[in-house]
Amino acid sequence: GQNIDQPTEMTATEGAIVQINCTYQTSGFNGLFWYQQHAGEAPTFLSYNVLDGLEEKGRFSSFLSRSKGYSYLLLKELQMKDSASYLCAVRDSNYQLIWGAGTKLIIKP
Amino acid sequence: IAGITQAPTSQILAAGRRMTLRCTQDMRHNAMYWYRQDLGLGLRLIHYSNTAGTTGKGEVPDGYSVSRANTDDFPLTLASAVPSQTSVYFCASSELAGHTGELFFGEGSRLTVL
Fold it and tell me: What is the spatial distance between Cα A74 and Cα A17, in angstroms, rounded to a whole number?
């Protein structure tokens, strides 16, 4: 079966750095996405990785290792507004998106 | 800029009733999708449409139907609602088919079936 694993919940301090991990087992691989979802709102796109390595976009970076079936989202200089759920999704060989259940990130002052 | 508009935003429905969730986009995207989101589970694809006039089944299509008469509209119908269809429903679109590129989501429709 296809599976995406993420921690259910994480807590971090304002101004700090947090790394949210995602491991996957899918039928083929055609890219990995990270989305942010604030409570009661729609998911919004954060990043896309299809090749190994780190993609940096401001305070957010996403890393991919295809051989390990592993990705992480790195958030720097955390702000209270970063409190949200972070969804990992993998596009499989049929170009379908398989979604993780999401990681709820709680930021404390 | 509206993007994707869903209606209603929230609805309580008696079991056995028919319900249509509306979704309209103004981005001229080819592909549209309906997902449901339940606590502790990832987003699950119900139905999708790669282009106007075509539709396909996703992971959890039973009890739901869709139509895509034109590019902009992609309604989701529950023919006879059951309590297990209580969920938050998200409509999404992407410029190209095959989940290529970024998905744009509507604000969601929270449906409770009693």
Answer: 7
Question: What are the E-state strand segments in B8-103?
Answer: 10-13, 19-25, 31-37, 44-49, 56-57, 64-66, 76-78, 87-94
User: How far, in Å, CA of B60 to CA of B47, rounded?
Assistant: 8
Residue type at position A69: G
How many angstroms separate the CA atoms of A21 and A12, rounded? 14
Q: What is the mean pLDDT of residues B22-49?
A: 95
Collapsing DSSP to helix, strand or coil, B71 comes out as: coil
Whether residues B45 and A100 touch (CB distance < 8 A) is answered with: no
What average pLDDT does this structure show over B25-34?
Answer: 95
Q: Average pLDDT in the B58-76 region?
A: 97
Assess contact for B20 and B111: CB atoms under 8 A: no
Q: Which residues does residue B28 pair with via DSSP β-bridges, in sequence order? A: none
Which residue of A5, A97, A103 to mutate against B (max B Cβ within 10 Å)?
A97
Cis peptide upstream of residue B75 (ω within 30 degrees of 0): no
Q: Would an 8 Å CB–CB cutoff place B99 in contact with chain A?
A: yes
**In the structure, what pLDDT confidence band is assigned to residue B1 with cuts at 50, 70 and 90?**
low
